[in-house]
Design goal:
The complex is a heterodimer of chains A (252) and B (160).
Chain A lengths: L2 H12 L5 H13 L1 H17 L10 H24 L1 H4 L1 H19 L5 H18 L6 E2 L3 H8 L19 E9 L2 E10 L2 E9 L6 E8 L2 E7 L3 E7 L3 H11 L3
Antiparallel strand pairs in A: 1-2, 2-3, 3-4, 4-7, 5-6, 6-7
Helix pairs in contact in A: 1-2, 1-3, 2-3
Chain B lengths: L1 H11 L2 H17 L9 H19 L3 H4 L4 H5 L17 H9 L3 H12 L4 H8 L3 H20 L9
Helix pairs in contact in B: 1-2, 1-3, 2-3, 3-8, 6-9, 7-9, 8-9
The chains are: A alpha+beta (252), B mainly alpha (160).
Chain lengths: 252, 160
């Protein structure tokens, strides 16, 4: 790839919107061309400046109030309307039943998958659950020296806790979770409006495994391990940014 | 909801009109919620508020911006950045804010959705109703323009 082609794609590259083939070609070009490499760093620098919550406009409280009230009223009207129409009355129950059926189907499929698939599904659902159940954190702190001691006494291993604020992945907090039937430390990191859950549990092995990227139900996962622990990072971030997170975190 | 207000405020450029436009659009969205056929509710709200904001832009003083942004016409511009723009002056937040405000509305919209809301190109394409290639080139142009503005010394900056 030449300079012109690279510069045309440099923003898409930066935003994680390119396919693997183009990424490889651009990386190769950066290695040979300090000029383009500097341009790329310029884009990252600009993004770092722009990804600042202070640049977002906050909705005025009065407007928020108005919309909330209107939403509550709309919900009320809708439920009145459905209760007047008997064929809609049980729509809620029908939906709940449908969800149960889907959940059961999924549950029975799991034993048929191999262990790896089950782990991927389990880690992903822990991630989703933590977001849905509003149970992201047991200890909310951006200070690694608060989060790390919190895990002591709750786990039989000491998970490494790092704050990566300077690289654009601030630590938000920590939580105790269960993955595949064992206790795991879950560390929560932010990236703009996205959340990354990093699950760590004790698993002894003679050799570690290098990070590998996976995908499940639209979520991206990166898994790696050292001789003591197994690591899983999960997020709705794109794969490139998640791999960047894993890199700055310092995976082997 | 916050994302919808943020987008409207960035497009419209002042608090009062942004409030009016987003209130009207959000109330309408609530009323027609039954028209929502699945998909991402955030993108749906953003699409509605964006449409209202553009209608307001067309109707009001921004006649220069009201002309639908011509990507073809602006597409000929030099996209290759000067390496010196890598020396970005972060400056204070107000400088950055004014630099974003100086962008044409179409570029501002793509940039705000990408950098402040963290939207993927595909989502931006759906919200703005343009092809994904157009989103890519708008984001490129917005960034090059910002880099140029933010890397020139303050005294050479055009008054904003």
């Amino acid at each position: 790839m030449n300079c012109q082609q690279t510069q045309k794609l440099i923003d898409a590259y930066h935003d994680g919107e390119l396919d693997a083939a183009n990424i490889v070609q651009i990386d190769e070009h950066f290695a040979d061309c300090p000029r383009c490499d500097r341009l790329s760093q310029g884009v990252s620098k600009l993004s770092a400046v722009l990804r600042n919550d202070a640049l977002r406009f906050q909705m005025p409280p009065a407007l928020r109030q108005t919309i909330r009230a209107a939403a509550a009223q709309a919900a009320q009207t809708e439920s009145d309307a459905t209760s007047r129409q008997p064929w809609f009355r049980h729509a809620g129950w029908a939906a709940a039943a449908a969800i149960t059926v889907v959940a059961l189907i999924l549950a029975f499929q799991i034993p048929r998958r191999d262990a790896d698939d089950r782990m991927i599904a389990d880690v992903t659902s822990s991630h989703v659950r933590s977001l849905m159940a509003n149970h992201l954190m047991d200890v909310a702190s951006t200070d690694q020296h608060t989060v790390k001691p919190w895990f002591v006494g709750k786990l039989d291993f000491a998970p490494p806790v790092k704050d990566l604020r300077e690289s654009g992945f601030p630590l938000i907090g920590g939580r105790l979770d269960f993955v595949d039937g064992r206790a795991a430390a879950a560390m929560v990191y932010g990236r703009q409006k996205h959340v990354i859950n990093l699950f760590v549990w004790s698993s002894k092995s003679s050799q570690g495994a290098a990070p590998r990227a996976l995908e499940h139900n639209g979520y991206h996962l990166v898994q790696w391990s050292n001789t003591e622990m197994s690591f899983w990072a999960v997020s709705d971030l794109n794969e490139k940014e998640l791999l960047e997170f894993v890199k700055v975190w310092g995976a082997n | 909801m916050d994302a919808a207000y943020n987008l409207a405020r960035w497009l419209i450029g002042n608090d009062r009109d942004a409030e009016d436009v987003s209130q009207e659009a959000l109330l309408r969205a609530l009323k027609f919620f039954s028209g929502f056929r699945g998909g991402d509710p955030k993108a749906w709200l953003l699409t509605i508020v964006r449409r209202s904001a553009w209608t307001w832009l067309r109707r009001n003083r921004h006649h220069d911006e009201a002309v639908e942004f011509n990507d073809e016409l602006h597409g000929g511009a030099d996209l290759s950045a000067n390496p010196e723009t890598a020396l970005l002056r972060a400056g204070d937040i107000e400088t950055v804010r004014r630099a974003i405000e100086s962008l044409p509305a179409a570029l501002r919209e793509a940039l705000v959705l990408r950098e402040l809301e963290g939207c993927a190109y595909k989502e931006i394409a759906d919200i703005s109703g343009v092809p994904i290639g157009t989103v890519m080139s708008r984001i490129s142009r917005a960034r090059r323009q910002l880099q140029t503005v933010l890397s020139s010394p303050p005294e050479q900056r055009a008054p904003l």
